[in-house]
Amino acid sequence: MQRISLKKIIFVLAIILLPLMTFTKVNSTVSTGAKLQSGEFIIYVLKDDNWQKAGSLSYDKLFTEKELSLENYINESGKVEIRIQEVGGGAAHIDSVFLGGVHPVKVRDIEDGVKKLSRKDFDVIDAFGKTIEMTFNTKDIDRTLKLIARIESTNISKIPFQFPLNNTGKLMDTNSQFYSYKLNSARGSLKLDGRLSEVSNKKPFFEEYSWTGTGHPSGYTYGWVRNDDKNLYVAIDFTPDNTMDGDKDYTKVYIKTESGVIEYKVSVPELKWGRPGFSYTNKATYQHKIYEFKIPLRDIYEKGVDKKDELQIAFAAYGTAGPNQIDIILDAQPQNAETFSYTSDILAPTNFNIINSGPTFYQQFTPVPPGTYVFTQSSTPPGWTLTAITCVNHLGADNSVVNLASGSVTIPFAEGDGYNCTFANQKSIPTMTQWGMIIFILLAGLGAVYYLRRQKRAES
């Protein structure tokens, strides 16, 4: 009778073991939400004819109110001199300053400084790299300084809003979405003076809500289109952009032709097609960016648009105010029960992508204001399934704990709130049934016997 070797027995048991394996699920999470401070404001108080440092307050890109006690630096009621110095980070702005509940009565070298710093209203002053001195008259016992401000990081998003909004985050080409404007349907002209007086009380050609993720106020962007016999006129009231950022700010008008898309751009240095402005309008209580275009119809016709056609027209607006489109890149795909995480700000994002080795895990879209967002599972690595999303706002209040069904979930984001969101995942990994474990132990024992026999033969 032929003798069956121990090696063959081990091989047969391994073949039997494989079908007895089952799959269990392990959890993994992606966490987002912690804020990174970009810079700080150093606070000084004039005491005994010397500027004494009272402390500092750190800020990120979101407007936040912070407090600093000046009890040890202010002994008497009456006139108090405060100096605020900005250090670090990128663009910086102050919305309001209060000492003991009262606003300053004098702000040196800042146009409309008292007006702008007396209310919490997004009517801000530029503070980047500046030292700002102000005077308070106070009789209040409270010696607490309250400062609402923001400091951007040096690396900011360059993504503009694009209208129609479905174009946001995409290259503009003939496949993009456009509005239709029928020539002569709105007769009129514009004076390029930064006032929008000709159109401010007219019905806008487009009106889109713009959720920002850059610390600027979210709000509507309005556009008007009209023409006379020689020119096409466009006015854009970009209410989310409440800061002056020089050549970083711009708007664009796109016109579709059979051969491609014509682009007309206006910014502080680019004035061929129009003028930018920074003013108050009836669309917002704070000073913000507006744009006026004057485009010769002859230029449009020469570039491929028939005079009888309706214009297919679209727009873009950026002012360091932009949508919160976040791409989170993970270093490696999670294995088994390992946890992976990434930290970032979330402020009512327009698009949210978590990317790992090519595939997108989850994508967030913005259907309508005032802040309902649908997370849709776009594509995942093999074996991974999105199972739940938990979101907590920056105050620590539980906003939403959602178990997913049908691959999507709606989460309400409130304007001005930052959120820490945890995405729970499950991955199927192989394990064994009870019989599988018994056979595995037996197989391991036989393997040990086989190894010891070989060692014994080698020694002999």
Topology:
Layout: H1 6-17, E1 21-32, E2 39-47, E3 50-59, E4 64-69, E5 78-87, E6 92-99, E7 106-107, H2 113-117, E8 125-126, E9 131-138, E10 144-151, E11 161-163, E12 179-181, E13 206-210, E14 219-227, E15 231-238, E16 250-256, E17 261-267, E18 274-281, E19 284-296, H3 297-302, E20 311-318, E21 325-329, E22 351-355, E23 360-368, E24 372-377, E25 384-393, E26 398-403, E27 408-412, E28 419-432, H4 434-459
Parallel strand pairs: 21-22
Antiparallel strand pairs: 1-28, 2-3, 2-5, 4-10, 5-9, 6-8, 6-10, 7-9, 11-20, 12-20, 13-14, 14-15, 15-19, 16-17, 16-20, 18-19, 22-23, 23-24, 24-27, 25-26, 25-28
Query: What Rg, in angstroms, do the CA atoms define?
Result: 31 Å
Content of β-strand: 35-45%
Distance between the termini: 27 Å
Strands side by side in the biggest sheet: 3-2-5-9-7
What oligomeric state best describes the polypeptide chains here?
single chain
Describe the 3D structure:
The strands form six sheets. The protein has a five-stranded antiparallel sheet with strand order 3-2-5-9-7, with no helix packed on it. Strands 11, 12, 16, 17 and 20 form a five-stranded antiparallel sheet that branches. A five-stranded antiparallel sheet has the order 13-14-15-19-18. Residues 20-35, 326-381 and 391-421 have low confidence and may be disordered. The chain is built from four helices and 28 strands. The protein has three domains: 1-36 and 324-460, no CATH class; 39-151, no CATH class; 161-318, Immunoglobulin-like, CATH 2.60.40. α1 runs antiparallel to α4 (434-459). The longest helix has 26 residues, at 434-459. The protein has 460 residues and is mainly beta. β13 and β14 form a beta hairpin.
